[in-house]
Amino acid sequence: MGAQVSKTFNKRVTHVVFGNGHPATWRRAKKSDVKLVSVLWVGRCYDDGVRVDEELYPALNDESNPVLQRKRHRCMQPKDSPVRTPENDWRMRKKLDKMMKEHAPKQLFVPDVSPIIIDQENGIIYSPSLKRSDYMAERLKDMKEKRENLSPTGTFSIYCAKRTLVMTSMPTEKQHLVGQVVKALGGFSIVDQVCESTTHVVSGSHRRTLNILLGIARGCWILSFEWIMWCLEQRQWIPEEPYELSDQFPAAQICRLQRHLSAGEHQQDLFQDQPAMFVSQHSQPPTQSLVELIQLCGGTVCKTVRQAGICIGKYNGRRPVGSKILSEQWVLDSITHLKQLPYDNYNLE
User: Fold this and answer.
1) 266 torsion bin: left (phi>0), alpha (psi -120 to 50), beta (else)
2) What pLDDT, in 10s, does the model give residues 306-329?
3) What is the rounded distance in angstroms from the CA atom of residue 12 to the CA atom of residue 92?
4) Which CATH architecture is the domain 277-346 placed in?
5) How far apart are CA 85 and CA 205, in angstroms?
6) Which contacts (CB < 8 Å, 24+ apart) does range 315-320 have?
7) What is the domain partition of the chain in residue ranges?
8) Which of 30, 99, 172, 341 is most deeply buried (CB count within 10 A of its CB)?
């Protein structure tokens, strides 16, 4: 990305990427007043294509711990290294133990500013007067000064007693970590499937799943697992915006903002002007899940094919003249792109 990498610490060094390094390197960097950042800072710069504010990704070190001082220098772990969990990482276990002992603050902080605005023609854009990095730095600085626990509902949602979180595409060890963080910080119940009380869907990969689609349809936060890791690092719920999977699922951000701006119960209108739909009993995803998705997006579902203008999934029986048989992918892809896609590519006739 254009930076020069030095194998030794010298006067030209401006940044030290520190991850479980030698205490002497940490002390020398502190004395030289260079920027100490974690490996995640490099990853975020690469993902965003810009130099991200270093204050958002500080390196951590515990010089008072004799175990760290005796450790030999290790190079940064490769990308295919095992995920850090409380069972195999003493730092993480120590943080979790500390969080478990602390009482969650009673007051919840919901900021009233955001860099996001909605443009009717161009969709979601960030306000040019307030860059996202500046916004995030201000948010984290405010939390650090006030020692407040940021509401897990984020910038646009409000607190409710029924708030739930869903995990998807996540191996067992990551699920266990999410459960530990939620237990320590509070504010959520974990459920298996997105429902009306769900506000956050945390994904271990970028794979499109049923819970991802349900989260989009309901206007939930769709977040990467990295958000959980940084909540653990900061020992509090942090702003969700930098960890939103908006590149992979652009409709998620739009639906989330629509949910915030709508008065009363949130309702999508994606399929509102479509004919009544009949979902085949042999469909994949299962019939009931497709029915829920269609209804959440404003569509009408009928119980018999005689009343339908569109049949979703394979169907070999008699049907009304002029009705269409479309693949289940038409529903899933339309929700993913938040756009009524042409029938032609999904016609099963």
Assistant:
1) beta
2) 999 999 998 888 888 889 999 999
3) 33
4) 3-Layer(aba) Sandwich (3.40)
5) 17
6) 315/278, 315/280
7) 1-77, 97-261, 277-346
8) 99
Give the span between the Cα atoms of 126 and 22, in whole angstroms.
40
- Separation CA 244–CA 346 (nearest Å): 30
Cβ neighbours of residue 165 closer than 8 Å, sequence gap 6 or more: 152, 178, 182, 188, 189, 190, 191, 198, 199, 200, 201, 202
Task: Please tell me the distance from the alpha carbon of residue 223 to that of residue 221, in angstroms, as a whole number.
Answer: 6
Is the Cα torsion angle 230, 231, 235, 238 positive or negative in sign? positive
- Edge-to-edge strands of the sheet including 324-326? 277-279, 310-312, 324-326
Contacts of 119 (CB under 8 A, 6+ apart): 125
- In this predicted model, what pLDDT tens digit does every residue of 77-122 receive, in sequence order? 444 555 555 556 777 767 666 665 553 433 333 333 333 343 434 4
As given in the structure block, the two tokens for residue 145 are 């000064």
Record the tokens describing residue 80, joined without a space: 């295919």
Alpha-carbon distance of 180 to 232, in angstroms, equals: 10
Looking at domain 1-77, its CATH architecture is 3-Layer(aba) Sandwich (3.40)
Q: Which of 109, 115, 185, 114 is nearest to 146 (CA)?
A: 109
Domain 97-261: give its CATH code. Answer: 3.40.50.10190
Beta strands in the chain (DSSP E): 15-17, 35-37, 116-119, 123-126, 164-168, 189-191, 198-203, 221-224, 277-279, 310-312, 324-326
How far apart are the C-alpha atoms of 228 and 21, rounded to whole Å?
23
Task: For 116-141, give the secondary structure using H, E and C.
Answer: EEEECCCEEEECCCCCHHHHHHHHHH
CA proximity to 210, closest of 147, 168, 180: 168
Q: Is the pTM of this model over 0.85?
A: no
The domains spanning 1-77 and 97-261 adopt the same CATH topology: yes
Angstrom CA distances, 97 to 90, 100, 102, 165, 173, stand at: 10, 5, 9, 22, 17
Q: How far apart are CA 47 and CA 116, in angstroms?
A: 19
Residue with tokens 């989330």: 256
